[in-house]
Design brief:
- It contains two helices and 38 strands.
- With 487 residues, the protein is mainly β.
Length: 487
């Protein structure tokens, strides 16, 4: 059996564990023929939860890194947010109930898990319905990272037992949220055979670049137009050479796509990043090598601005992670060591199903914001730090509050917005000046700040509406929604 060395899945004999990235997908990519048993992780702390940076598979509830630089709507947050509703607890299989992603419209919050896509009224929390699979016996295995400008979203499905070696996440459906969540079409997008055998995967990555939907398979990326026709197809270097070169992850921006490649070299792996333009053309001709420290990992963060993250081995608490920036043609521009007066950046991640990690990193075109320090320390509490993406310079480090684990909820060219705690009871939203780091409290969230310490929770913020979404099964509610109180 040959398996892709993901997270806590069983690795093929001789496959190096020192070089494998810590994957959030906890997925499985295999050659469908001749498959043996795949050992799935069963510990919440190993695959479905979030832990401290450097612990191997750490996941920290965070907001998705911003890829926009437009100013948030004014006011970004009302002076006070209160809990308005909560959804039922998440129950079911540990892995399949994990979060795929979320969509927002003017009236609804879509919560996607491996067990289904539910549609909740954003004001009342009442379940408005669910998106049904195209065929009976199918379950979701991929969800686009947000909606297109026209309100279109994409879902991927697999049929049968998701844990089966032949389960293949290759059915793609285009959903129109503006017309009753109707399915415009469903099509099949499969990987190229590898070494003469079908290549199967139980999750996939989806994203919109303009009006084209990019679909990542194990060794290709296919661009689909909204009429279901194929706009372009990109094949990674392993297809022509019939080598074990896998697409590990993908990020999609307005006019660029980044694909993280893993290449097998006997008992070890190397990693590269290929950049594609909106027409599926690879720029430059060869993928950019991504050297990582022994036992460390490399992960994509965003496509706009295009960034990647190199982390040290899990138990190295002194070496700072590095943020890598790229030129327009996909070459490495700068490697920025995320070191601050409070210590190395503590890069939190949310562990999800069918997509890359969501990191507690906030990006604009010019600045990267990270958290650093120890959220449980009174002497060196967690702080917020800013780095200049053009020069790599550390701009400033500022406090958040005692016993707080800050989460980034938005940014523009002049301000970064941070959900923190007072160290007493409630949470606050702070605005930090991008230039000086000066802090202003702009909102109070009437809820225990202990929620910030939860490790299996993702924050989805829109102006005036803050959703805390539990990423896996547990005793608490699946979603907590906070909004401005009615006057």
């Amino acid at each position: 059996m040959t398996t892709r060395p993901y997270g806590n899945l069983q690795q093929a004999p001789g496959t190096s564990q020192a070089r494998r990235p810590a994957r959030s997908r906890c997925g499985r990519r295999v050659l469908a023929a001749g498959l043996g048993a795949v050992v799935l992780a069963t510990a919440l702390t190993a695959c479905a939860s979030n832990t401290a940076p450097g612990s191997g598979g750490q996941k920290k509830p965070t907001a998705t890194p911003s890829t926009k630089t437009k100013a948030p709507k004014s006011p970004f947050a009302p002076p006070r947010l209160e809990q308005t509703w909560k959804a039922s607890p998440v129950t079911g299989d540990l892995l399949r109930t994990k979060l795929l992603g979320t969509w927002r419209t003017d009236t609804a919050l879509y919560v996607g898990r491996g067990t289904g896509i539910t549609v909740l009224d954003s004001v009342t929390g009442i379940q408005l319905g669910a998106i049904e699979p195209p065929e009976a016996g199918m379950s979701p295995c991929g969800m686009s990272d947000g909606l297109s400008k026209g309100g279109l979203g994409a879902l991927a499905w697999l049929k049968g037992d998701p844990d089966s070696g032949k389960a293949n996440c290759d059915r793609i459906t285009l959903i129109d949220t503006r017309h009753g969540n109707s399915a415009r079409w469903t099509t099949t997008v499969s990987a190229e055979p590898l070494r003469g055998k079908p290549l199967a995967d139980d999750t996939t990555r989806l994203g919109f670049t303009g009006d084209v939907l990019a679909v990542m398979t194990g060794n290709t990326v296919v661009g689909l137009r909204t009429d279901k026709s194929t706009a372009w197809t990109w094949k990674n270097p392993g297809v022509r050479a019939d080598k074990y070169v896998l697409n590990w992850d993908m990020t999609v921006g307005p006019d660029r796509l980044a694909v993280l490649l893993g290449t097998e070299h006997g008992a070890s792996w190397t990693y590269d990043i290929a950049t594609l333009d909106a027409n599926g053309k690879q720029l430059p001709a060869a993928p950019e090598p991504m050297p990582t420290p022994p036992g460390g990992s490399i992960d994509l963060v965003a496509a706009a601005p295009m960034t990647a993250l190199v982390r040290p081995e899990p138990f190295d608490h002194t070496t700072p992670p590095e943020l890598i920036t790229f030129t327009r043609d996909g070459r490495v521009a700068r490697r920025i060591k995320l070191a601050t007066q409070a210590g190395p950046a503590t890069i939190g991640q949310v562990n999800m199903l069918g997509r890359a990690e969501r990191y507690n990193i906030q990006l604009t075109e010019n600045t990267a914001y990270v958290a650093a320090g120890d959220s449980m320390s009174l002497d060196a509490p967690t702080q917020v730090a800013a780095f200049d993406l053009a020069t790599g310079a550390h701009k400033w480090t500022r406090p958040v509050g005692l016993a707080a684990r800050p989460r980034f909820v938005g940014a523009d060219d002049e301000t970064v917005y941070v959900l923190g705690g007072k160290g007493v009871s409630d949470m606050n939203i702070y605005a930090y000046s991008a230039k000086s780091g000066d802090r202003t409290q702009i909102s109070t969230v009437k809820a225990p700040d202990s929620l910030l310490m939860l490790d299996s929770m993702m924050i989805d913020y829109a102006p005036g509406s803050l959703a805390m979404i539990i990423t896996g099964p547990g005793p608490g509610p699946g979603v907590l929604m906070f909004r401005a109180p009615l006057s």
